[in-house]
Fold this protein.
Amino acid sequence: LIEYGRAEEYLFNQYLQTGDAWYINHTNPGFNRSKEFLSSWKKLYDYNTGLDDSKKLVVHGIDFEREPGLSASLYQLLSAYKSNPQVESLRDSLRIRLDTISIERRNKAYVYSLREKIKALSLPGDENKKMIDEIINNDYFFDYSVGSKRDKYMAKTFLNWILLTRHI
């Protein structure tokens, strides 16, 4: 479990599956010792490659969406539909946000606009679309004044994960 949203969940899981540093480099460790954090993920990747498929590590995000993970995950997930010119236009706008990673942003308005843009694309109901929907329909947006709501949201997400995966 990570204290990030589903976008970061996607990026960390892709890293654990592929070892491609692009994914881990577009996450937001969110603290000063990020180099140590990222090197520990390399160790987790190495460990994970030695596990049987039934025992592979899987990351679950239980918090709100952050940048750059939000734009990076959508950018990658939408690559499955590159033949659609509207999708490529949206990916171009996401790519621009990747070039400005150090800028702190509030994501609420951005996520609402993405919802509308993605809804207009009429994407097929495959696994990529399912993950895109989970990311952009994550309705908890960070607000410094509502810490207790954030904790309740994370607890609810965690309990839903337990029920869905039957880890009771």
Q: What stands out?
A: The mean pLDDT is 83. The helical segments are 6-18, 21-25, 34-49, 69-77, 85-98, 108-119, 127-136, 147-165.
